[in-house]
Design a protein that fits this description.
wza like fold; 251 residues; Outer membrane lipoprotein wza fold like; 6 helices; 5-stranded mixed sheet; 3 domains
Length: 251
C-alpha cells in the first residue's frame, strides 16, 4: 500500500513537470517562404504629441518655429520632449507659429511634413521638415516578465517587438490565445492571435498602432495551479501527509 502511494506520488510529479514543445515554441509552421507585410504609416490622431523639427541653411530663420525639444537636445528624456511637442487638438489640428492652424486629419507624419514644408516656404528658404510621434504607447499585460506601458520613439513597432520590451512571455503564458485590443477612430477591435503559427505575420495586427493593448492569458496549467487540487506541489504535500499518517496509524 505504501509503495503504491509513493509510486503514485512520483508519477504525479513527473507528469506535472512535463511540458510539450507545442505549448512553448513560436512560429511552429514557419518555412523558408518569405512572408511579406508592408508597413503603412499611421494616421495622426487627436491627442498625439508631435516633435516637429524644422531646418534650413540659415539656422536663425527657423528659430521662431522651434521649440525647446527640437533645439538639438537629442538626449532629452521622452517625457521632457513631449512637454514641448505640438499637441494635436480634438479637431485634429496643430497651431504652428506664424503659419497658424494646420489640419492633420487622415494624414501620416510624412504627409504632414510635406504640408508644413510647403506652408513654410514664404518664410524660410528651402526648409526641411521631419516629424516624429512622441507618445506612441503600447501596453503589454498578463503572463509576461515585465508587464507595463511602453513609450517608443518609432511608429514601426511589431507585436514581437512589443513582447520583447515586456521581457517575453513567461512559461505560463498562453501562446495560442494572445488577445490584442485596438481602439481606432472610436471603434474597438478585439483580435485573438496564435503565436505558434505564422498567420499573424501577414495580418493587420502584426504592426501595432497607437495605444494597442496586448494581454497574455495564463495557460491551462497556470489556471489549474491556482486551485488547491490542481497545484502539483499541493498534491505532493497532501500525499506525503497521507503516507505519514498511514505509517503512524499502522504501527
Amino acid at each position: 500500500m505504501i509503495k503504491s502511494l509513493f509510486y503514485s506520488l512520483i508519477l504525479i510529479v513527473l507528469f506535472a513537470s512535463c511540458a510539450s514543445k507545442k505549448d512553448v515554441y513560436y512560429f511552429q509552421d514557419i518555412d523558408s517562404t518569405a512572408a511579406e507585410n508592408s508597413f503603412k504609416f499611421l494616421n495622426i490622431q487627436p491627442g498625439d504629441i508631435l516633435d516637429i523639427q524644422i531646418k534650413a541653411l540659415n539656422p536663425e530663420s527657423v528659430l521662431v518655429f522651434q521649440r525647446q525639444a527640437t533645439l538639438g537636445l537629442q538626449q532629452q528624456q521622452v517625457q521632457n520632449r513631449a512637454i514641448d511637442g505640438y499637441l494635436v487638438g480634438e479637431d485634429g489640428s496643430i497651431n504652428l507659429p506664424i503659419v497658424g492652424p494646420i489640419d492633420t486629419t487622415n494624414k501620416s507624419t510624412q504627409a504632414l511634413a510635406q504640408i508644413i514644408q510647403e506652408a513654410l516656404k514664404p518664410y524660410i528658404h528651402n526648409p526641411t521638415v521631419n516629424i516624429r510621434l512622441l507618445n506612441f504607447r503600447v501596453s503589454v499585460l498578463g503572463e509576461v516578465n515585465k508587464p507595463g506601458t511602453f513609450t517608443v520613439l518609432e511608429e514601426r513597432v511589431s507585436l514581437p517587438q512589443a513582447l520583447g520590451l515586456a521581457g517575453d512571455l513567461t512559461i505560463n503564458g498562453d501562446r495560442n490565445h494572445l488577445l490584442l485590443i485596438r481602439n481606432e477612430a472610436g471603434k474597438k477591435t478585439n483580435q485573438v492571435i496564435d503565436l505558434t503559427k505564422t498567420d499573424f505575420l501577414q495580418s493587420p495586427f502584426y504592426f501595432l498602432k497607437q495605444n494597442d493593448i496586448i494581454y497574455v492569458r495564463p495557460n491551462s496549467a497556470r489556471v489549474k495551479s491556482s486551485g488547491l487540487v490542481g497545484n502539483a506541489s499541493t498534491l505532493v504535500s497532501i500525499l506525503s501527509l497521507a503516507v505519514s499518517l498511514f505509517i503512524v496509524i499502522t504501527r
